[in-house]
């Protein structure tokens, strides 16, 4: 059984393919392989960057959770003190505290309005 390109006159390195058709497909295959390799490396670097960003965001969220927990404890203690003040006969002190809070609110409003 004889094929085209096989036999005594065929070059040793082309494995029975004609040199023109095989090299075109080989070059195209190499070009596509290199293109795929660059795309895979780009996706790999992008996924590594996304992983790093996710780790940083999780760390920041954990810190914010701790801050909110400590702030909630502080607000709870403050509200407990306010309840204790409201139960007592210290209405004058409570009135001063409410006026002070109103004053602070207007000062902050005034500062924001000036900007």
From TrEMBL:
TM ranges: 93-112
Topology within the bilayer: Single-pass type IV membrane protein; Single-pass membrane protein
Keywords for this protein: Coiled coil, Endoplasmic reticulum, ER-Golgi transport, Golgi apparatus, Membrane, Phosphoprotein, Protein transport, Transmembrane, Transmembrane helix, Transport
Domain T-SNARE coiled-coil homology: 23-85
InterPro entries: BET1_SNARE, T_SNARE_dom
Subcellular location(s) of the protein: Endomembrane system; Endoplasmic reticulum membrane; Golgi apparatus, cis-Golgi network membrane
Protein name per UniProt: BET1 homolog
Organism this protein belongs to: Grus japonensis
Lineage, top ranks: Eukaryota, Metazoa, Chordata, Craniata, Vertebrata
